[in-house]
Design goal:
By secondary structure, the chain is mainly beta. The protein has two domains: about 170 residues, no CATH class; about 100 residues, no CATH class. Strands 4, 5, 6, 7, 9, 10, 11, 12, 13 and 14 form a ten-stranded antiparallel sheet that branches. Strands 16, 17, 18, 19, 20, 21, 22 and 23 form an eight-stranded antiparallel sheet that branches. A three-stranded antiparallel sheet has the order 2-1-3, with no helix packed on it. The two termini are about 35 Å apart.
């Protein structure tokens, strides 16, 4: 894979356009145009994605566990597997799973969420919602703070963002399975940038069979609430030496991570699972070893303790994981996957 020079990636608002076609096989070649400039302030239209073209996997491409990339989105880079040592007393089965980042084109987030709910049900991962609706599926962000989406729907309150979370969660004494769909839309504070992602996370420990978590009921696709469509546009993608994080917040407050030499942001980062300022994002790289070495150098300089790297092969991928943490400073996990000439690194950064 050839990564475009940083000077090209940093031209304002570079985008990929995915040709609309009937998917006859998930192994079909990408139908992508050459990257072109998107004038500042122009909204993306259906079929436009704020992703480096060589890193965009189209609708219909295979994920894992029988799932595919839904229409209206592209997969950034690849699916990123993870594993953890055996747990339990005595230790039994290890934790295994994967994460994927999808970017939406801004056409219809409701249709994307419904499609994922339908796919998950067919794949044996039915999604659930809180039985008493105490935890809303979607939370809206306005200048007044956060509240359930249905509390602001129809009101003349400008939306700054929407986040919808649904999950499959089964557990027993012998193990657990969790699949989370996290749809995010957001405007930057100056309202000049807007992004829309879906972060998918799957993990399994021990026996995959079990009952749904107490207090939850099956979420039918038709029960997915109507999600307002926010305009999607793209800020400049970070190149070597530049700060990497979600541009919808103060990037310099998200952990001070800079893009290593030989790498570029494949797409804007999404919000992570931290209480604040965390992010997950994908780098496209020409040298996995050098990229991980640079990331390790950065986190060590910040006082992090780095774990030994973990290496394995799965599903045609070579996987390398760099883990680090620091007391009171959160963690950084970097998962590198190589498949042929393509190489990507998933950054999961929680600075607190």
């Amino acid at each position: 894979m050839k990564v475009e020079p940083a000077g090209v990636l940093k031209r304002p608002l570079a985008i990929a356009t995915v040709a609309v076609a009937t998917v006859v096989a998930v192994t079909m070649p990408l139908a992508l145009t050459d990257r072109h400039a998107n004038p500042a302030g122009r909204r993306l239209t259906p079929g436009d994605y704020p992703v480096v073209p060589s890193a965009a996997q189209p609708a219909g491409a295979a994920l894992l566990n029988g799932l595919t990339v839904p229409a209206g989105t592209v997969l950034v880079g690849d699916v990123f597997p993870f594993r953890e040592p055996p747990r339990g007393n005595p230790p039994t089965s290890s934790v295994r799973g994967w994460r994927a980042i999808l970017v939406l084109d801004g056409s219809d987030p409701t249709a994307v969420l419904k499609a994922l709910a339908k796919q998950a049900g067919k794949a044996g991962l039915p999604l659930f919602q809180d039985r008493g609706s105490k935890v809303p599926i979607c939370v809206a962000r306005t200048s007044n703070g956060e509240s359930a989406l249905d509390k602001v729907t129809g009101r003349k309150v400008p939306l700054l963002g929407v986040r919808c979370t649904i999950r499959h969660d089964r557990a027993s004494a012998r193990g657990a399975t969790n699949f989370t769909v996290d749809l995010q839309q957001g405007l930057s504070r100056d309202r000049k940038a807007s992004l829309s992602h879906v972060v998918l996370t799957y993990y399994q420990w021990g026996d995959a069979q079990g009952r749904p978590a107490q207090g939850y009921q099956l979420l039918l696709p038709e029960a997915v609430p109507r999600i307002p469509t926010l305009p999607v546009s793209l800020p400049s993608l970070a190149g070597p030496g530049e700060l990497f994080g979600t541009p919808l917040d103060d990037i310099d407050m998200q952990g001070g991570l800079r893009v290593p030499a030989g790498s570029d942001a494949a797409a804007p980062a999404a919000d992570g699972n931290c209480a604040q300022r965390g992010f997950v994002g994908v780098l496209a790289t020409t040298d996995v070893t050098a990229t991980l070495r640079d990331l390790e150098r950065q986190v060590v300089a910040q006082g992090f303790e780095v774990s030994p790297q973990d290496h394995w092969r799965t599903q045609g991928q070579t996987v390398t994981v760099l883990g680090s943490s620091a007391a009171g400073a959160g963690y950084l996990n970097a998962t590198a996957v190589s498949r042929g000439a393509d190489a990507y690194v998933l950054i999961d950064r929680c600075p607190e």
